[in-house]
Amino acid sequence: MLIIGLDIHRAFAEAVAWEEGRLRRLGRVDMRRDLLAAFAAKLSPNDVGVIEATGSATSAAAVVAPHVKKVGIAKPKQVFIVAYAKIKTTIDADVLAQLYASGFLPEVWIADEPTQALRRQVTRRNQIVRQRSRLKSVIQSILHSHLIRPARMPTCAAPRVGPGNRAGRTAGRAPRDRWASARVRPIGRRPPGHRTRSCPLGSRG
């Protein structure tokens, strides 16, 4: 059984193998799904993979997992040399493999695919809500700076900018550059004729 340590960078990963107390460098692996899968296919079903916890660690683990016995993701904050190294080198991959072999590797829990999908959905929804809130604040600030009283609107609604409301009537009273800022199309705006019965989750306040 080999213990494969992977130190993941943005474009590549440094790979080492630990076997019977000896380290063997496997070189660099391109961090593209097809090339990483080709590397994992060369491993034995009895091997164990150890990956540093980074932004792409979960995706890398999903690619490697079908080809090995187990994939562990290490907590970098609890692995001193990984957490505080100023320059990433193959030493990181060495340490990961050695710590797993000695039974002292602090691992993180790997969520299943439905949980990861839900996390991505919630993250994206929060981003959209924040973008809508920022846009509303920009428009309200423009109106306030030019002594124009903003129209009242529901808390969950993004400001609608057009000729039919108070914001739309600022075209002749606000500088051209400020008016252009207020005409930005709201993120996630509903199609014409669509009526929202309730406020989106998390958009209040």
TrEMBL record:
GO terms for molecular function: DNA binding; transposase activity. Residues 156-205 are annotated as: Disordered. Residues 186-197 have a biased composition (Basic residues). Residues 4-145 form the Transposase IS110-like N-terminal domain. One of its GO terms (biological process) is DNA transposition. PANTHER family: TRANSPOSASE, TRANSPOSASE FOR INSERTION SEQUENCE ELEMENT IS1111A. This is Transposase.
